[in-house]
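Read as amino acids, tokens; as here:

___
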Amino acid sequence: MEHSPGSWLTEAASAAQQQGAGNLLRVVLVVMVVGCVLGAWFLLRGYKRDE
């Protein structure tokens, strides 16, 4: 098997076509949820009152 500089990209693209969008969708959803949680924590921590 001969390797060219862009061969990993074509292999990844063909594997993605065979696999579908299932894993990509899971990764996107997990990143969105974690981002929302961190964003909410960052915004809401300013409302904490130290009395």
Observations:
- Helices lie at 7-19, 22-44.
- Residues 21-51 form one domain.
- The chain has a mean pLDDT of 79.
- The radius of gyration is 20 Å.
